[in-house]
Structures are given as structure tokens and as C-alpha cells.
Write a structure and sequence with these properties.
Blueprint lengths: L5 E5 L5 H9 L1 H6 L9 H11 L6 E7 L4 E11 L4 E8 L10 H17 L3 E7 L3 H9 L4 E12 L2 E11 H5 L27
Parallel strand pairs: 4-5
Antiparallel strand pairs: 1-2, 2-3, 3-4, 5-7, 6-7
Bound molecules: coenzyme A.
Coenzyme A (COA) binds next to helix 2, strand 4, helix 4, strand 5 and helix 5.
Length: 201
């Protein structure tokens, strides 16, 4: 999946040290929901082996155009009947690359993949109320809507914080001014529809 600045691809075994770094990064741990003890490389390897059979959770590496790994996104808890899933984005960026559009591009790219390739209708995620970069990326720049607020739901840095529930429908995504740039064309370039001959259908 190609965005404007990023590319999403499957996680390979060679990515596990990067995934471990991302998972254990202190700043990222303070910004995202879901708490756990730091993970070892051995735990990452065990996760990787079981994840190969998992059809309901898919993690994707985010690369820049130079093919350097810069983060992770994916679809979790995919509900194939009701056609929704949880998504998230985590980037490990140097200070000079923060705020350069990688995060928003990754969100738009994973939305387009979910809505037009996987066939989902709704994506959702949660944002701690002090995570302005994430709130801006999803809600102000990518068409996501606030759907609810859980009061004092997340314990971080010795204090409980409110948690926003945010969601995006396919039509919310399509209403974003440049959404069309992310939507794959219906027919691959260079191919035409073959009209049925009389009597064939
Ligand atoms: C949230 C995150 C993905 C944003 O990535 P990014 O590449 O820095 O963001 P972008 O450059 O695409 O910016 C998107 C918007 O957020 C704004 N933004 C980025 N960093 C910001 C900051 N520190 N403070 C305020 N706004 C910020 C940008 O200005 C931009 O809005 P604009 O176009 O109106 O100026 C990244 O910071 C991250 O990985 N955070 C930690 C994990 C996380 O919070 N994930 C989301 C929870 S699921």
C-alpha cells in the first residue's frame, strides 16, 4: 500500500528488533492505550510465530520512501460480519521528521486499505486526552469523528486521564479533500472492461 510519503508492508522476522524498540519506547508508551511490561526479543519472536495464522489482526510496517522502517500500523479485532476494526499508528521519528506528514499519510493509507481492499465499513481507535498530535492527525486532518469520552479511563504517569473514542466511516474518509488520491482506481491502469457478447450472459 503506497501513500504519498509512506508505504505499508507485512512484518518480516527481520523487523522484530525494530518492533521491540517501538513497543518499549518510553515516550510512545506514555501516548498510547494498552499497558504491558516491556517485551523481550524472545517474546516478539513468539508473537511473530503465532501471528502468522491470525486472520483477525494484521500489523503492518510503515516505511518511508527510502524503505526505512519508521513505524507500525495495522487492523486489530477485525469483525468480518459487522465489517469494522480497530486501528492505530505508532511512529518512531527523529525530531526533525516529526510533523512532516508521515503520521497523517499513514492514517489515510491504512484507511484506504481497510475500506477499499479489505472491505470494512468502519474503523475506530482511542486517544488519551493529552495526545494532541494524534487527535489532530485523526480528527482534524483525516475525517475522523469523536464518538465518545470515557472519563478517567487511562492511568498514566500517576494520574487517570480521559479517553476519546474516535471513529471513521467510509463516507467520512471520502469526504476528506484529498481522499481520492489514496483510493485505488477501480480497474488497473492499462486494462479495459470486456463487454459480454450477445448470448454469453
Ligand atoms: C500521532 C503521530 C502518528 C503523528 O505523526 P506525525 O508524522 O508527527 O504527524 P503529521 O506530520 O502527519 O501531522 C498531522 C497533524 O498533527 C499535527 N501535529 C503533529 N505533531 C504535533 C504536536 N507535537 N503538537 C501539535 N500538533 C501536532 C501536525 O501539525 C498536523 O496538523 P496540520 O497539518 O494541521 O499542521 C505520531 O506523533 C505518533 O506516532 N505518536 C505516538 C503514537 C500515537 O499517539 N499514536 C496514535 C494513537 S493510536
Amino acid at each position: 500500500m503506497e501513500g504519498k510519503y509512506v508505504r505499508l508492508r507485512a512484518v518480516e522476522e527481520t523487523d522484530l528488533p525494530f518492533c521491540q524498540l517501538l513497543y518499549n519506547d518510553l515516550e510512545l508508551r506514555r501516548l498510547v492505550v494498552g499497558w504491558d511490561f516491556p517485551v523481550s526479543l524472545a517474546q516478539q519472536k513468539r508473537w511473530f510465530e503465532t501471528s502468522q495464522q491470525d486472520r483477525n489482526n494484521i500489523r503492518l510496517i510503515i516505511e518511508n520512501k527510502e524503505k526505512e522502517s519508521i513505524g507500525l500500523t495495522g487492523l486489530w479485532d477485525i469483525d468480518w460480519h459487522d465489517r469494522h476494526a480497530l486501528t492505530a499508528v505508532k511512529l518512531l521519528l527523529s525530531d526533525e521528521n516529526k510533523g512532516k506528514g508521515y503520521g497523517r499519510d499513514a492514517v489515510m493509507t491504512v484507511c484506504a486499505y481497510a475500506f477499499f481492499e479489505v472491505g470494512l465499513f468502519r474503523l475506530w481507535t482511542t486517544i488519551i486526552n493529552y495526545n494532541a498530535p494524534s487527535f489532530k492527525t485523526y480528527v482534524e486532518r483525516s475525517g475522523w469523528k469523536v464518538e465518545g469520552l470515557l472519563r478517567q479511563h487511562v492511568f498514566r504517569n500517576g494520574k487517570s486521564h480521559d479517553l476519546y473514542y474516535v471513529g471513521c466511516l467510509r463516507e467520512d474518509f471520502l469526504a476528506v479533500s484529498d481522499a481520492i488520491d489514496y483510493v485505488p482506481s477501480e480497474i488497473p491502469a492499462g486494462y479495459d472492461i470486456i463487454p459480454p457478447k450477445e448470448g454469453q450472459v
